[in-house]
Write a structure and sequence with these properties.
The structure holds two protein chains of two kinds. Chain A is built from nine helices and no strands. Chain A has helices at residues 7-44, 47-61, 65-74, 76-80, 85-110, 114-122, 127-157, 169-179, 183-218. Chain A is globular. The N and C termini of chain A lie far apart (53 Å). Chain B is elongated, with a radius of gyration of 23 Å. The model of chain B has no long low-confidence stretch (mean pLDDT 88). Chain B contains ten helices and no strands. Chain B is mainly α. Chain B has helices at 2-18, 31-39, 41-73, 78-92, 96-106, 116-142, 145-153, 158-188, 200-211, 214-249. In chain B, helix 5 (96-106) crosses helix 6 (116-142), helix 6 packs across helix 8 (158-188) and helix 8 packs antiparallel against helix 10. Chain B has one domain: MetI-like (MetI-like fold). Classes of the chains: A mainly alpha, B mainly alpha. Chain A binds chain B through residues 58-59, 61-67, 70-71, 74-75, 78, 152, 156-160, 162-163, 170, 173-174, 177-178, 180-183, 186-187, 190, 193-194, 197-198, 201-202, 205, and chain B through 27-28, 89-90, 92-99, 101-102, 105-106, 109-110, 183, 187-191, 193-194, 201, 204-205, 208, 214-215, 218, 221-222, 225-226, 229-230, 233.
Chain lengths: 219, 250
């Protein structure tokens, strides 16, 4: 029982955890940036770009994440050259998550009263500066809880990368699990790995609740 | 099967006569790769049907777990509330893949040997049950408190209140978030790929890997997922707008 928690296994899993966190962080950053771009395009772009942005969002939101991870790993390298699997996996993951982030950010943008735009224009702000200085900061503040929830989902979804053989936490636990023979050992490893995810995600969800409560009074 | 092959052969002739068909092309989006993939339509459809079967059964479990959980989460008995809280937090804050690993690697050692289909149904059902439970809970909380008091004053017991007064009103409120959960559930059946399932995503992936026709295989799979998920998304959006308008009109 205690043997599964030897230094070697723990170290092995911790390397996986590091990769998981790196991928999750990269995906969150890329998808918030690209999601913002998509949201703005879908809301304020011209007719064609508006259409393209909604097609992108609809397609990515209605197909599985794993599909895009696989597609990124096996199709994109043909055009853009060979990089480690983890890199392409992260790209596919970000492409997918961006579509979800875009809808969240759009929810925030839509909740900003129209008068804000008019007021900004009357003060001589251009379209870009109005968005950047007036609308986006307010929109982001409003969507912090749902964005955090999506970040939790993103952290959990890194587990799908195990399907591509990328050595993140779940894949590493899978390789350990495949060699274990007793139920106690398997339960211990699954419990340990699930515990790691739980601690990270649960702390974030406490933050969501705290923040939601705080802003509930403010409104 | 033979029908689709005949059709593909016809398409091949057709593109050939147009001079568009280039057997030598190595582009991942080469036309011949798409036509080769179309010849495998039956394989994709089989995987698709498997995905739909898992989805429907898992959805059934999720709704049962979710309704019980949601009702328990709003009850006056603290133990019941704590119990659903623990269920929801554990299932929502750990990856579905890890939960599937438990069923796949763990249970056989207890003498419980489940096939992949059952693992998918139970695992995905229990995972989404936690989400549905939160949806049902928020739906019940959205029903004004006066409704409980009014029905209590008419002599309804708690079960009767729930059964006749509260839950029917809740259904309308929770339809949009429920359809979103359904979309997520259908998409999440792809988790079975990691333990070697035969649902749509795995079928597409193993075909892609065997023949090297990655792009057409993924596009075909994406198309099949899209035609089930998009109508649900559309319904959710449409119904939500309708509810919003009805709310504003009141």
């Amino acid at each position: 029982m205690n043997e599964v928690f030897n230094a070697q296994n723990i170290n092995f899993l911790m390397q996986g955890l590091t990769l998981t966190l790196k991928i999750a962080l990269a995906t969150c950053v890329i998808s918030i940036l690209f999601g913002t771009f998509l949201a703005i395009t879908k809301n304020y772009g011209d007719k064609l770009s508006r259409f393209l942005a909604s097609v992108y969002i609809d397609i990515f939101r209605n197909t599985p994440l794993l599909l895009w991870m696989l597609a990124a790993c096996f199709v994109l390298p043909v055009f853009f050259g060979q990089f480690p699997q983890a890199f392409w996996g992260t790209i596919g993951f970000s492409l997918y998550t961006s579509s979800v982030m875009a809808e969240i950010i759009r929810g925030g943008l839509n909740s900003i009263p129209k008068g804000q735009f008019e007021a900004a224009y009357s003060q001589g702000f251009g379209k870009f500066f109005t968005l950047f200085y007036i609308i986006l900061p307010q929109a982001f503040r409003r969507v912090v809880p749902s964005m955090l929830s999506q970040i939790i989902t993103t952290i959990k979804d890194t587990a799908y990368l195990a399907g591509l053989g990328i050595a993140e936490l779940t894949y590493k636990s899978k390789t350990i699990l495949a060699n274990l023979r007793s139920f106690e050992e398997i339960l211990a490893i699954i419990g340990f790995v699930a515990g790691i995810y739980f601690v990270i995600c649960f702390s974030l969800s406490m933050l969501v609740r705290y923040y939601a409560k705080k802003t509930a009074y403010a409104h | 099967m033979s029908e689709s092959v005949g059709f593909v052969a016809w398409l091949r002739e057709f593109f050939n006569s147009l001079g568009l068909y280039d057997e030598e092309s190595i582009s991942p989006f080469a036309l011949w790769k798409f036509l080769d993939t179309l010849e495998q339509t039956q394989t994709f459809i089989d995987g698709f049907i498997y995905t739909l079967q898992v989805s429907v059964l898992a959805l059934f479990i999720a709704v049962v777990f979710g309704t019980i959980g949601g009702v328990m989460a709003t009850s006056k008995i603290a133990v019941l509330r704590a119990y659903t809280r623990i269920y929801v937090e554990i299932f929502q804050n750990t990856p579905l893949v890890i939960q599937i690993f438990f069923l796949y690697y763990g249970l056989p050692h207890l003498g419980i040997n489940l096939d992949l289909f059952t693992i998918g149904v139970l695992g995905i059902g229990a995972y989404h049950g936690a989400y549905v439970s939160e949806v049902v809970r928020s739906g019940i909380l959205a029903v004004p408190k006066g409704q409980f008091e009014a029905s209590a004053s008419q002599g309804f017991t708690y079960t009767q209140q729930m059964r006749y007064i509260i839950v029917p009103q809740t259904i309308k409120i929770i339809l949009p978030p429920m359809s979103n959960q359904m979309i997520n559930l259908i998409k999440n059946t792809s988790v079975l790929l990691i333990v070697g399932g035969v649902e749509l995503m795995s079928t597409a992936d193993s075909y892609a890997a065997d023949y090297g026709n990655y792009a057409p295989a993924y596009i075909f799979a994406a198309f099949l997922y899209f035609i089930v998920c998009y109508p649900l998304a559309y319904f959710a959006k449409f119904y939500e707008e309708k509810l919003k308008k009805a709310h504003l009109a009141r």
